[in-house]
Amino acid sequence: MSNCGAFPDAGGIRPIKYDNGVLRLIDQRRLPTEEVWLEYTDYQEVAEAIRSMVVRGAPAIGVTAAYGAYFGALAIEAETYADFIREFDQVCEVLAGTRPTAINLCWALDRMKSLVQANTDQPVSNLKIGLEYEAMAINEDDIRINMKLGRNGAALLPDQVRILTHCNAGALATGGYGTALGVIRAAVAAGKEVAVIADETRPFLQGSRLTAWELQRDNIQTVLICDNMAGYLMSKGAIDAVIVGADRIAANGDVANKIGTYTVAVLAKEHNIPFYVAAPISTIDLQIADGSEIPIEERDIREVTHIGEQQLAPENIAVFNPAFDVTPARLVSAIITEHGVAQDNYTEQLAAFVRQG
Length: 357
Ligand code: MRU
Prior knowledge:
Blueprint: E1 16-19, E2 22-26, E3 37-40, H1 43-51, H2 58-74, H3 81-96, H4 103-117, H5 124-154, E4 160-165, H6 180-189, E5 193-199, H7 206-217, E6 222-225, H8 230-235, E7 241-244, E8 248-250, E9 255-258, H9 261-270, E10 275-278, E11 284-285, H10 302-305, E12 306-307, E13 310-311, E14 324-327, E15 334-337, E16 340-342, H11 346-356
Helix pairs in contact: 1-2, 2-3, 2-4, 2-5, 3-4, 4-5, 5-6
This protein binds 5-S-methyl-1-O-phosphono-5-thio-D-ribulose (MRU).
């Protein structure tokens, strides 16, 4: 079964394709200059694809991990339920350990584990079939959810709007359509006049390599800027709203997202510009009271010292490379989800959205 073409009206690329037992991922490290698709059937290799950023973005790594869990299950030779679930838990642990900040990864794996836990009476062969369908369902649900949250977010925007976005929260970061870019796509589909200002997003350059690439493919007007230019544009009145995605949202509405998001939120506050976060319910972590508890991934310092093979810094310089930061809820104007838009009292509203499932 193919997941391509299931949503003909959903703009943008599908970065994750599954067909006939083979997972295909567009190698996001090679965009925008090369479109290379890599094939996977082994869960350890899927784990490595997530770790090394072949695929990235919170919902996309959740979807990919679900397929990885299925491949891991398929390779388990155990015949009893007890032996199978023990080995399956180990597979999920490996996948869960690939990237620590995005909660969607654990959310998707929990959904896969729940299916096994709910079917203690089934033979192992049936569990494997069920897991394949569950991974495909997680993938398709994600696209549907993004389209819904996109429409919810578009309703917040005026008819003419210049939107700053940071990192890539687009089709490439999800099963398809995107979260922050899903709101932008939905606004364009609703006939609004949208111009996007894309932060390049040092050090991994998700903005210039990925956001600019996918918006250009969809003919959405886009201007690329370096991260340190956002304040200047805001001071000139050139930005009407900020929309970003999220990797994890704490119970009180604090938001972990790509490093630099906090800086943009502070700038938006200073200039009275609304700062919106667009994310599915699967990004909300009610187990975490506030952002101080969110684990922040630190990545290889080479991302800072080099671009490709080009060295940008002296040998042996000390480098710090946190991949995410936390924006306190007080700087967030609204959190846009598929169940609605939370605009204040995040603790109550987010909990109510999560209860809706
Ligand atoms: O390190 P990345 O590229 O995985 O970080 C991605 C982001 O920070 C995105 O903004 C976030 O995952 C939301 S994607 C819909």
